C-alpha cells in the first residue's frame, strides 16, 4: 500500500513540475517574440547579403586619396625599410655561417674526431693489463 501511495505522489509531483516548466517556456517565447518585433527597424543578415546594397566600409567617392608624389614617397620608405631588414638578415646569416665554419674546424681536431680520445683532451696512456687504472673522464679502465 505504501509503495502505491509513494508512486502516486512521485507521478503527481513530476507532472506538476513538467506543467510549470511548460508554462515558463511559453512566457519566454512571448518575451523573445516581443524583442524581435522591437528590432524590426534594424537590418537583418538577409538584407546585408544582397549584392546590390552598397558596402559599408568601401571608400565613398570624392574622399581624400593619396597624390602620386605621396604614393611614391610611401613606396620608397617601404623599400628603404625592407633594405635595412635585408641587410640585417644578410649580416646575421654571415655571422651564422662563420660560427658554423669555426665549429666544423674544431670538430676536425683529434680530440673530437678520433675515437681513441673518447672524453679526453689528450690521448690516454695505455698501461699494461696488470697496471690499468679506472679513468674518471671516460669511465673506462686503461
Automatic annotation (TrEMBL):
Sorted UniProt keywords: Signal
Compositional bias segments (type: Basic and acidic residues): 80-98
Recorded superkingdom: Bacteria
Protein's UniProt name: Uncharacterized protein
Transmembrane segment boundaries: none
Residues making up the signal peptide according to the UniProt record: 1-21
Ranges of compositional bias, category Basic residues: 24-36, 99-110, 119-129
Organism: Fulvitalea axinellae
Region (Disordered): 22-66, 80-129
Composition-biased stretches (Polar residues): 42-52
Amino acid at each position: 500500500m505504501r509503495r502505491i501511495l509513494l508512486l502516486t505522489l512521485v507521478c503527481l509531483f513530476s507532472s506538476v513540475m513538467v506543467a510549470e516548466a511548460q508554462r515558463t517556456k511559453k512566457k519566454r517565447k512571448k518575451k523573445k517574440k516581443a524583442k524581435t518585433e522591437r528590432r524590426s527597424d534594424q537590418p537583418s543578415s538577409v538584407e546585408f547579403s544582397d549584392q546590390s546594397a552598397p558596402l559599408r566600409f568601401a571608400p565613398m567617392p570624392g574622399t581624400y586619396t593619396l597624390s602620386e608624389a605621396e604614393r611614391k614617397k610611401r613606396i620608397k620608405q617601404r623599400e628603404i625599410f625592407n633594405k635595412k631588414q635585408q641587410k640585417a638578415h644578410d649580416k646575421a646569416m654571415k655571422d651564422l655561417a662563420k660560427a658554423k665554419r669555426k665549429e666544423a674546424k674544431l670538430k676536425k681536431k683529434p680530440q673530437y674526431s678520433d675515437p681513441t680520445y673518447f672524453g679526453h683532451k689528450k690521448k690516454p696512456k695505455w698501461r699494461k693489463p696488470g697496471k690499468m687504472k679506472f679513468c674518471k673522464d671516460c669511465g673506462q679502465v686503461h
